[in-house]
Specification:
- The chain is α/β, with parallel strands linked by helices and 314 residues long.
- It folds into two domains: 5-162, Rossmann fold (3-Layer(aba) Sandwich), CATH 3.40.50.10170; 163-312, Hypothetical Protein Tm841, Chain: A,domain 3, CATH 3.30.1180.10.
- Helix content is 41%, strand content 22%.
- It has twelve helices and 13 strands.
- It has helices spanning 17-23, 52-59, 73-84, 102-116, 132-146, 151-161, 175-179, 185-191, 217-231, 248-262, 274-277, 299-312, and strands at 5-10, 27-29, 32-34, 40-42, 67-69, 89-94, 122-126, 165-171, 196-202, 208-215, 239-244, 266-271, 284-290.
- The chain has a six-stranded mixed beta sheet, sandwiched between helices. A four-stranded parallel beta sheet has the order 2-1-6-7, with helices on both faces.
- Helix 1 links the parallel strand 1 and strand 2 (27-29).
- Helix 3 packs across helix 4 (102-116), helix 5 packs antiparallel against helix 6 (151-161) and helix 9 crosses helix 12.
- It is globular and about 60 Å long.
């Protein structure tokens, strides 16, 4: 293993301590969560003070308003310096610039510290992804490092392949995405209709983009699996993540169907973290995987899903 550099992310990556330890993600820089009572705290990937069930249940009535904030430059510098001072280089893979200014904070920290540690390498990569897709990018990066790739080689691979990380799944309600400005009003209204499952993938701006809608859970499961079949590369060698918010039963059903149809190397079940959870809310089920590069405007992906919904969903 190449131990000369560490991989760091932020609290948008949804990797809890067990997963960080397993894959060798050294650390993360926490953003802030502002709670409904006005208090704020560091976003905790490990759910130390509140469970994920409690967190998302608090949001369920849509009356308790949460918000999130970026990390500070001093806090980011503190995390970087823990490793730079030990003679290690730092590769930071961070939350999409499409939804957050975290990348700018990390770049400013990089500039400040590069002068103090001129012999160390600090590389910051805009993932154009968030939540569990960012987690998957970090896992890929760690795997390449373990194969002996240099920090520059790993950073370049992430740059070249980040738009190959897909998501497919649904949200029972797009209210929280609408409130955070992550979907259009029309898409949000459609996403709140009873039984409608708004399905999304990532566009070139690093945002979730609704590419189709289906009705009912059975059709949603079918659409997810068929869409993955049409866009995934070498599923038998992949680690696939499935994330959920207050939808464990539905996430487990999706896992079973993906396992049966695609037979991936491994499926990891996880929960969306506090930072990204603010803009997602309860009701998400989604799979994250490596596939063909997403097309501009997701034009091809919309065509694929439309055909699936027309021919495979009842």
């Amino acid at each position: 293993m190449n131990k000369n550099f560490v991989i760091i992310s932020d609290s948008g990556c949804d990797l809890n301590k067990e997963l960080r330890d397993r894959f060798g993600i050294a650390d993360y820089v926490p953003g802030r969560v502002v709670w409904p009572d006005g208090t704020d705290s560091p976003a905790d990937l490990d759910w130390g003070e509140v469970s994920s069930e409690e967190y998302f249940t608090l949001m369920s009535d849509k009356k308790k308003v949460f918000s999130s904030g970026t990390p500070s430059i001093p806090n980011t510098m503190d995390v970087f310096e823990k490793y730079l001072s030990q003679g290690q280089d730092v590769l930071a893979i961070v939350l999409s610039t499409g939804i957050s200014s975290t990348y700018g904070v990390f770049v400013n920290a990089q500039r400040e510290l590069q002068e103090k540690y001129p012999d160390r390498k600090i590389i910051v990569v805009d993932s154009l992804r968030y939540s569990t897709s960012l987690a998957l990018l970090c896992v890929f990066a760690a795997g390449l490092r373990n194969m002996g790739k240099s920090i520059e080689e790993v950073a370049q691979w992430v740059e070249d392949n980040k738009e190959c990380i897909h998501q497919i799944g649904w949200m029972d309600d797009l209210f929280f995405c609408k409130r955070m400005g992550r979907v259009s009003n029309l898409a949000a209204v459609m996403g709140t209709l009873v039984g409608i499952k708004a399905m999304a993938d990532f566009n070139e701006y690093g945002k979730s983009h609704v590419i189709g809608k289906t009705r009912g859970y059975n059709n949603a499961y079918t659409a997810c699996v068929e869409y993955m079949k049409a866009t995934i590369i070498n599923p038998e060698s992949q680690i696939i993540f499935i994330a959920q918010t207050l939808r464990e039963k539905e996430a487990e059903e999706l896992r079973k169907r993906i396992q049966e149809e695609l037979n991936p190397k491994e499926i990891i079940m996880t929960t969306v973290g506090q930072s990204c959870g603010v803009g997602i809310g309860p009701g998400l089920v989604a799979a994250f995987y490596f596939g063909r590069k997403c097309t501009k405007g997701l034009e091809k992906e919309q065509e694929i899903l439309a055909k699936i919904i027309k021919t495979k969903c009842k």
